[in-house]
Structures are given as C-alpha cells and as structure tokens.
Amino acid sequence: MKFGVVVFPGSNCDEDAFHAARDVFGQEAEYLWHKDTNLKGADVLILPGGFAHGDYLRTGAMARFSPIMGPVRAFAERGGPVLGICNGFQILLESGLLPGAMLRNRGLKYRCEHVHLRVEQTSTPFTGVARAGQVLRIPIGHGEGNYFAPADLLKQIEANSQVVLRYTDPNGVLSDDWNPNGSVNAIASVCNERRNVVGMMPHPERACEALLGGIDGRVIFESVLSAFASAGSKGPALQMAGQQAVS
Amino acid sequence: MMITPQILERHGLKPDEYDRIVGFMGREPNLTELGIFSVMWSEHCSYKSSRVHLKTLPTQGPQVLQGPGENAGAVDIGEGLAAVFKIESHNHPSFIEPYQGAATGVGGIIRDIFTMGARPIALLNSLRFGSFDVPGTRRLLEGVVAGIAGYGNSIGIPTVGGEIAFEPSYAGNPLVNVFCLGIAKQSDIIKGVASGVGNAVYYVGAKTGRDGIHGATMASAEFDDRSAEKRPAVQVGDPFMEKLLLEACLEVMKTDALVGIQDMGAAGLTCSTTEMGSRGGAGIDIDVALVPQRETGMTPYEIMLSESQERMLLVVKRGREAEVERVFDKWDLHAVHIGEVTDNGLLRVKNHGALVAEIPNRALTDEAPLYTRPMSEPEYLADVQTLDLEALGNVARGFQPSDQNAALLAILGSPTIASKRWIYRQYDHMVRTNTINLPGLGAGVVRIKGTDRALAMSVDGNGRYCYLDPYRGAMLAVAEAARNVACSGAKPLGATNCLNFGNPERPAIMWQFAKAVEGIGAACRALGVPITGGNVSLYNETDGKAIYPTPTIGVVGLLEHADRVVARRFRDAGDAILLFGEGRGELGGSEYLKVVHDIVRGVPPALDLDAERALQALLVQLAGERLLRSAHDCSDGGIAVTVAECCFEAGGIGAEVSIDGVGVAPDARVNVAAALYGESASRVVVSVVPDAVTTVLERAAAANVPARVIGQTGGNRLRMAVAGQIVVDAAVDEAERVWSSTIEQAYAKRVA
C-alpha cells in the first residue's frame, strides 16, 4: 500500500508519519510537496501535524490554497482514504472536507501529554480493525484542539455517527476532567458523511513503537492496511466491512 | 561626525578601547565603523573579560570533532555520525520581554546547530527566576515558558527536559539558558568560514528591520531603573520562517555548493561577515543596499547592527549560485547575492556602491581587547561559609524540627523541587518520534533513527553552591550533569557551558568567575567530558547587586542500545532498592536549610572526582547489562527527596528504606535531618530485581563504588528509617499530591 504524506511549508510531523508508514509498517511512502499536483499513485493520504504556513490567518487556513489540495479533494471525492492528524485535521476543516471548526484549548495553553480515547465507531478505513468502545492511549500535542460545531451541525454529526474518537478517562468513561482542551462533546476525531476522510487531533504515529511508550496508535494504520487488503486494487475507494463501496 | 564621549558611552566603549580602534584604523572611525566595533568588542561577542580564563578549559579528546570556536561543538557518536550541541543564554532580553526574549533564545541556539550541517533533534532549557511567591516571578515564568513553547513547538523540535530553580538572587536578572542538540553525518559538518576569492556571499532568510539593534551591547551591561526603555533592543522571532530556513539550508548543504555558512545572531550581519572572514583569513565586500529590508530609510549602521532573526550568511562556490537560489526559491525564501569574498582581509561595507565602512576583519575578532581583570576573594565569603548546626536545633518554622514528615512535604512542595509538569506539558516533547525518556524522568533521551543508538542529555547548575564556593559549586554542576546522563545508561562524551555571572569589572565577581572556570576544568578533565563550546553571560546585575555565580553545564552521552535506557521511577513492587555512594550529612547550601530554616550558609558538599568517575562508569555498565530497573541521583533535597521522587508518577508504588545515621551536630534531630536531606555528592538510588542484587553488588565492589541494599519497593507508603528508627512515614499519594500541586495551583485561577 502506498502512503502519500503531504508536506506544507511548516509541517513538522511529516517525517514521523512517513517513518510510521515506511519503517514501522513496511509500506511504500512518498512525500507530496504542497506546490505539486501529483499524488504519485498514493492509495492513502496523510495530512500530518505541524504549523503549515505558520498558522498565518488561522491555523490551517492558508494550506487549502496550496496546489496539492485540488488533487487531495478529488481523491477524497472519489472515496480515497484521507487521514488528517492534528494540523492536518485543522486543514481538512478549513478546506470544507470535514464539518466543524477548531478553537484554542480552553486552558489557553499548549498541551503535550498522553490522553485516552474511546473508539466510537469502526466504519471508517482508519478504525475498521478497532472495536467500538475500545480505549486507546495516544499522545496529543496541540494548542488549538478545541473542536467546535454549532448546535444544529453538532446534532447532525452525532446523529450520523460521524464522531470517530472521544476523550475519556482510562476506562472509557466520559468526564470533563479528562477532556484536555474543552472540545464539544469531548470530540477528538470526526469523519465526513461518506466516512473516507477522518481528522483526529491525537498523533497515532507517536504511538506505534513500544520504545516510545505505547503502541495503541498502531490500530489506525492496521485498519487502513486491512481495508486496502480487502479492497484489492479497485481504485481509491476502499470497501468497508459490511458496506457497499460507494462509486 | 565627531565621536564624542557621550557617543562612546552609548556604544559601551571605553576611551582606551577607542584609542585602540584609532590605532588599528590609522584614523578616526566614522559612526558606522564605531557601531561595528562596539558590537564586536562588546563583552557578549568578544568575551574580552573571559577569554583568558576559558583558555584553561579542557577542550580535547579522541571523541571531539569540533571544539570551541565554531558555531557549535561536535562529538563522534559512532557509525560515522556526530552529535552537534551547544548551550546559550538569552538572559537580558528575557527580563525585558519574556516571551520574545526566550523565543529568540531558542531560535538562536537552533540556528547555531543547523548552521553546522546538523539537523536539530532536541532542546533543553535551564531557567532561574526570583522567589516563586512574588507575582512578578510568575509573570516572567509564564512568559518565558510560553516563548520557549511557542518557538520550539512551531519549528517542531522537541523540548525533552531541563531544570528550573527559584532564588531571590535572580529576581531582577532571570536566567534563560537554552541547549540544542543535532545530528549530522561527520562528513556533512560545515563550518562558518569564508574563503576563495570571488566566491559569492549570500544573505538568506527574513528581511532586516530595526529590531534588536544594540542587543549585543545591552547584554553587556547591567540593568537600572531605565531598563524598560531598552525594549527596542529585544528581537522578535518567527519560528515558521526559521523552519523554512532550516529545511532550505539542510537541503542546500546536501548540494555541496557551499564553502561556509553562519547564522546571523548577536550583532547580525556584522558578526557573521567578520567572523567568517577572519576564520578564512579572507576579506568580505558587501553592499547593504542589496539587503532585503522590511523598513524604509534604514541606514548602513542600522542594517549592519540589526539583530532581526532568522537570517543566514552563505559563501557559495563560484558558479553554483543558481543551484542555491533554486533551493531557497522552493521554500519561498529570499536568497540575495550581496557581496564577494576578497583576499585583503578587510570588511568593506558599501551602500549603493559607495564605501561606507572599511575595517580589518582581524581587528574586530582576533584583536579584540583581551582583559585580565583584577580578582579578589569576596568579602562575604568567609562569614557565609560558617554554618552553626547547633543553632539549627532551636529554630522551628511552623512545625517541630523533629517532624520529618512535615519537613519532607515542605521540601517536596517547594517550588525548586516541586513537579514542573505544568511547564513541560506546554512543550511538545514528542515531535519527531524519537523521545524515549520523557521530561521529569531524568536526563532527556532521544533515539537515533536508522541505528540502535540513543543520545542522553542533561543541563544542571546550582547558583547557591557557587555563591558559597564557586570552585566546588562549578565542579558539582559538571558532576551532576554527567551523573544524570550516566543514570540513564549513557556514557558522557562532551560538555557545553553557560557561565552566568555579574559585572566582571568588580574583582569579587571576576574571582568567582575564575574559580568557577577552574572547577569546571578540573571536573571535565576527571570525568572525561571536554568542553566543546559554550557561552558567557556577564553583567547579570541590577542596581549593583549581582546574581549568584551560576555556571550551567550541558552534558551529552551515548547509549549504544536505545532499549537499555533507564528512567528514574520505580517499576514494580518487590524490587530491591540500593544506594551507591555514601551520605555524610552535608547540609551546607542545601535545599533543606533554605526551605525549612531560610538559611543560605555553609560549604557545598565535598566531591571526590575519582569516586564520581567510578560511579558513572558503573551506572553505564549496569545499564548495558540490563541490571537496573531504575536510577535516580541524589541532589537537591538529598536522599529523602530522591527516594520520594522515585515513587512519583509510578502508579503509586511505595518504598521502605533504611539509611545510616550521621553525627554532624550535637542535636539528634539535626543529625536525622542531615542524614535525610544532606546533599552529599556521588550518590545514586537504584532499583534492581531481587535476583540481580548479588551481581550488582559484585559489580559495584569491583568498581570500588560503595553499594548496599537499603530497602525495597512496595505498599503505598513512603517509609524511611535513619539509624534504625523510622522518621518518615507518609502516604505516597499525599506526598505526590503536594509535590505536583505547587506550580499548577499558582496558575490555577485560569480555566483549566
């Protein structure tokens, strides 16, 4: 499976995502420079963490104007799996590929620490191998991870099961004390209606090797590898277990 | 324009220095030339008061690839790789403008690393502020931490550790020392040298503005009540710009099109041009009209002295200019051909083709003044070194001196010792997915991808010890930094020093400086950690009152197998706890004396460098054999604090230990305190699986390191006995709560 890691000026977790894909999971991986329009045959796209364009204007706001985003959008519209991590999530929100918006952490401070996440649903390419209700311990590192959606939109997102991960206590129980940034409904990750585009604030690529203190991030990568294996090479859209592929 | 005494004074130059300038030039300098001399001959850039002493430091060793004199030092770490590192200060700017002062300190040290061809992979910082109770301190701390976080996180380099201390001495003069470590292939290391007549001189990076003009001279002077006026002298940083610069420079270095490269830090364009020229024995011609500017009407003086951030100076091989420009264009950065290398050894500055300054490079660098300033032992010293232990027994501070539980909790909750989690949680310490020892667990450790290896690093200092005895205090700082590295299982390889002192024109301060340098030298020699570079920050005084003399030392070490890293906390109930080294109940300059009795007196603990060396080698050996479950050295607060800290953030594991008594005072209660909180050096508390105890004791005996079992992990209480009598018996949860609340609570009125 080929991973395409998009690199914007100011991206700084691109090497981490690339390392996870190529060195930890043994897959092909390419960097996709923001000024190019060639996805180099990638089967899955990762928009990595960092501070693309220096967070000028708003975090993620400038990146959507980069030439690469045209092909990224088209790939997503064809059903290709796209994972936005941290700043990548913010970019997907600003690009309109995911619903909602991101605010500053309610404590107004950057927070780097391990958090616990409950898997809410497994019908995305990035959570297919997880169990609903499974608790993952994965690091965050962000100053603007306070996910927000206005009441109507939020209702829709919840009704559509578009919430992929929520912040919880170590036992998977929702508790405001265990929400690191004040995000609405403790949301840590959402997907689009079609379920092929996922944005998540935590960094799964930081939890793929035991040496670094935890491997709960592996399930995100294992899921997309498994989805690809089942789909064969039928083009970008991956068939999810128990679902028809949307053409 | 006539150079008047007022103009000279504003430039920080003395009349006799001015006479020397006239001597070199063969004429009076114009204002632009005077400005150039003033920054290059400032204390900050020329090290004029310190060079004669720094020359005595050990800087060589088989592992040293680059010693002092370049932008950073480098040591061989095997497999054709080098660790490139240095520590620097940004003290004065951080007092004036905490966020930007600290942020640009981080930016500056990062540039010093990647200008050598190394990719920066980790940061540490050593911060010192006035008393934590004072609101001004909290504002400063918050601003400095936000600045370090804002810059380091944006550029994507993890801050993996550091130290923070609070002493009234630093109230008007906070210390912000930042350390950076990078990795390079040894063959890729590139120097800051200009050579090859006709080679192009390129300016790359951010535009030049008026920020930071005379930053170097500000850092070379004390503060007084007009210090707030110095605000324009603080530079403003843009980490995004520096990230682009970092990637572009590393990319262009791979093309082999560069002769040399240097960052523009203190004294900006002036410093980089003259230093590169001097190192290469060459001259440099530049035209400042070609420099990208973000303000209108800038004069050559302003352009040469500006300390605008995120700019580099490159010397490009003839014919390779287009290649270089293409790389910077890809990253949307300015890359402008502003001059040439010449063979006349002169710095020639033009403005639209007209010559506005002409100075021999060597006059600005090698021939800068060299002072052997008068020194004399400070008057306070003899008195402050006396410590009346008998009197201690009579002093109470809200509790009975015999109540060691209360004393221990007071020390654990004191700001210098308390958990710094509120702070390091603001630093991204995991970006680049290399960090294997997180902050708070001892030395910072990062693995090196593509190898089995890892690098450990620690930055340590103790101003109070150096105030009481600068020679011994400085030695102890080196020992502690190297010991922290060894505790993680890594062999210490090299060191960098940041020397923070008061006004060197005062003989007492100069004496402190000289003694500290002697102490650093002695310890570095004995422990095999040569100094590869560093920084001196003088004039840390306000209204005539100097800070404690505070050398901070950064040590880097190598772990040949990353997975054998050792952290500070206990792992499991039922492990044996061993003590390496011996406690002698030394309370001089201790945290106990300060927190419980509000006294700063006595002499710092003795240090046997041979014993310290043996201990560090033993730790590295045992870690390599996977015999240690945890290791934590005894420093501030003594063994009681060490054992307590091993229980924290460890899932609530308790410990029960029994240590020998000491007989240092007539009062039994003081003796108990001395045993618990004495800060005797060369001691480490380790935990070991029971089956391995015999082997570990054998290894220690063979290494001549005193070692014995003092207890075991388990339960949920912290129990310590001295001379067979239990004197501390507290719930681990309670102790951990006290330790982890102090800093967090102080800022808690904000929404969590």
Can you describe what's shown?
The complex is a heterodimer of chains A (247) and B (752). With 247 residues, chain A is α/β, with parallel strands linked by helices. Helix content of chain A is 21%, strand content 23%. Chain A contains 5 helices and 11 strands. Chain A has helices spanning 14-24, 69-77, 87-94, 151-159, 218-231; strands at 2-7, 28-33, 44-47, 82-85, 101-103, 111-119, 135-142, 146-148, 163-168, 187-191, 197-200. A 9-stranded mixed sheet of chain A has the order 2-1-3-4-11-10-9-6-7, sandwiched between helices. Chain A has a two-stranded antiparallel ribbon with strand order 5-8. In chain A, strand 10 and strand 11 form a beta hairpin. Chain A is globular. Chain B is of the alpha+beta class and 752 residues long. The termini of chain B are far apart.
What is this structure's SSE topology?
The complex is a heterodimer of chains A (247) and B (752).
Chain A (H helix, E strand, L loop, with lengths): L1 E6 L6 H11 L3 E6 L10 E4 L21 H9 L4 E4 L1 H8 L6 E3 L7 E9 L15 E8 L3 E3 L2 H9 L3 E6 L18 E5 L5 E4 L17 H14 L16
Chain B lengths: L4 H6 L4 H11 L5 H10 L2 H4 L4 H4 L9 E3 L6 E6 L2 E9 L1 H6 L1 H17 L4 E11 L5 H21 L3 E8 L8 E11 L14 E6 L9 H4 L20 H16 L3 E6 L4 H13 L2 E5 L12 H6 L5 E6 L4 H10 L3 E9 L3 E6 L2 E7 H4 L16 H4 L4 H4 L11 H9 L8 H4 L10 E3 L6 E4 L6 E7 L2 H6 L1 H18 L3 E10 L6 H21 L3 E7 L3 E2 L2 E2 L3 E10 L16 E5 L10 H7 L11 H16 L5 E4 L4 H10 L7 E5 L8 H10 L6 E5 L4 H10 L4 E7 L3 E6 L2 E7 H15 L6
Parallel strand pairs in B: 4-5, 9-12, 17-18, 24-27
Antiparallel strand pairs in B: 1-2, 2-3, 3-6, 4-6, 7-10, 7-11, 8-10, 9-11, 12-13, 14-15, 15-16, 16-21, 17-21, 19-20, 22-25, 22-26, 23-25, 24-26, 27-28
